[in-house]
């Protein structure tokens, strides 16, 4: 599985800057609320809520804000009912994308997604057209300075499936249901990690080897992520490390 796209790692790097935006908090709170509505308000009995609770805390969302979101989800407090929808589409250069949204107005959000794709050189796709190119995985990003053997010893029995060298980071992958156990195993071994989340990982990739191609794809993804209803965008492209460093600069 080491041939999978580095998009999960790229998203992590982008997220470091995105954390400065207040809308990140709003999106995380919406995800907590929906998880509580669908599986109950007890994180110990609701794996999805447990994951979202930890993700919100990792992003410094206050506990009382998270708890209010959980109560809205369970009906203890009045809240909005959100619908989960996944749109499929294409970015420039034939890159496949999945767009997860939580919305209280399907028509508005669908129109916004189509318009954003069209304005930025992309297009909407029929359901199922690109989804088969992705699978859900638990992904943990660690500094490359962490010893590979230490990671293997700590996490293998907890569910580690693959450890990918991505230059300045390791990308650890596991089944989504094993993410809490793998995360706990790393913490018990005092192995620090930069992020831990469930994500869609592509099984095929499109290499973007020019700055223009990479910017075109990143532009449409940034535009989609600016939509308050969009929770996550997944894509099947890969950018060489040298080019990625140039774009970061």
UniProtKB/TrEMBL annotation:
Q: Which GO terms describe its molecular function?
A: DNA binding
Q: Got a GO cellular component term for this one? A: mitochondrion
The UniProt record lists the TACO1/YebC-like N-terminal domain at: 5-76
- What SUPFAM superfamilies does the record tag this protein with? YebC-like
Tell me which residues make up the TACO1/YebC-like second and third domain.
82-237
Alphabetized, the UniProt keywords read: Cytoplasm, DNA-binding
Q: Which compartment or compartments is the protein found in?
A: Mitochondrion
Among Gene3D superfamilies, the record links this protein to: 1.10.10.200, 3.30.70.980
InterPro entries per UniProt: Integrase-like_N, TACO1_YebC-like_2nd/3rd_dom, TACO1_YebC_N, Transcrip_reg_TACO1-like, Transcrip_reg_TACO1-like_dom3, YebC-like
Pfam families per the record? TACO1_YebC_N, Transcrip_reg
Q: Which family does the UniProt entry place this protein in? A: Belongs to the TACO1 family.
**What HAMAP family does the record tag this protein with?**
Transcrip_reg_TACO1
State the name under which the record lists this protein. Answer: Unannotated protein
């Amino acid at each position: 599985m080491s041939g999978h796209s580095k998009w999960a790692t790229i998203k992590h790097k982008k997220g470091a800057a995105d954390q400065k935006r207040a809308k990140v908090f709003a999106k995380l709170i919406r995800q907590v609320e929906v998880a509580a509505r669908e599986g109950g308000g007890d994180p110990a009995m609701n794996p999805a809520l447990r994951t979202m609770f930890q993700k919100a805390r990792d992003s410094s969302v206050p506990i009382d804000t998270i708890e209010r979101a959980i109560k809205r989800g369970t009906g203890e407090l009045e809240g909005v009912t959100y619908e989960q929808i996944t749109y499929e589409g294409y970015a420039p250069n034939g890159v496949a994308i999945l767009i997860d949204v939580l919305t209280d107005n399907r028509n508005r959000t669908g129109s916004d997604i189509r318009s954003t794709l069209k304005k930025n050189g992309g297009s909407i796709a029929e359901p199922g057209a690109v989804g088969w190119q992705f699978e859900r995985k638990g992904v943990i990003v660690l500094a490359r300075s962490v010893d590979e053997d230490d990671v293997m010893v700590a996490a293998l029995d907890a569910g580690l499936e693959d450890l990918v060298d991505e230059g300045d980071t390791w990308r650890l992958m596991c089944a989504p249901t094993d993410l809490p156990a793998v995360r706990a195993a790393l913490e018990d071994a005092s192995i620090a990690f930069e992020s831990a989340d469930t994500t869609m990982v592509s099984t095929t990739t499109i290499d973007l080897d020019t700055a223009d191609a990479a910017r075109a794809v990143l532009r449409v993804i940034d535009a989609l992520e600016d939509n308050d209803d969009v929770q996550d965008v997944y894509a099947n492209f890969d950018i060489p490390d040298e080019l990625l460093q140039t774009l970061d600069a």
